[in-house]
Known about the structure:
By secondary structure, this protein is an alpha/beta fold. The chain is 47% helix and 16% strand. It is built from nine helices and five strands; from the N terminus they run H-E-E-H-H-E-H-H-E-E-H-H-H-H. Strand 1 and strand 2 form a beta hairpin. The N terminus is likely disordered.
Amino acid sequence: xxxxxxxxxxxxxxxxxxxxxxxxxxxxxxxxxxxSAVVVLNEKNKYxxxxxxxxxxxxxxxxxxxxxxxxxxxxxxxYGIGQSSAREIDKLGIRxxxxxxxxxxxxxxxxxPSKIIVDGPLLxxxxxxxxxxxxxxxxxxxxxxxxxxxxxxxxxxxxxxxxKKYPGFLxxxxxxxxxxxxxxxxxxxxxxxxxxxxxxKKSNLI
Length: 206
């Protein structure tokens, strides 16, 4: 009887199923697109990113998120970023638009993953593969935490650029969210074509 050849440790590592986490940012904002990111990580690189300090993006300073971004992109097996515009949000509703941004991120991956881990309680309805929903997943899975950082930094960078295009709304300060200051400015000078009209109607601002 032929003895089974012992598997090389590196081969075993390569065979491990990668963790594919997806998250969104900007869902509750009143200005600009909703962003999603998906990050694919193997066990070794999940450990390394944990050591570097990757946690839920909301628990990190903007400076720390920016420092972690290149490490995440370098150590990820693959990643994708997608967005859905304010116009799409107004037309389709925030849930469908968020799903659209997630699907756009997933389509950027080189290969379709067999399973994804989605932050939050809501199913990604257009996804035809296996998925698992995790409430507060960004504090439980490094791949989701990494995705939250990629999406957050990407969206914040866009807000910084849009600050110059739409001066007076303090977009980089409020990141497009409906702070009292932001809503007060809208009352004074009106809305732009990147404000989410469906959100502002609920607040009787337009």
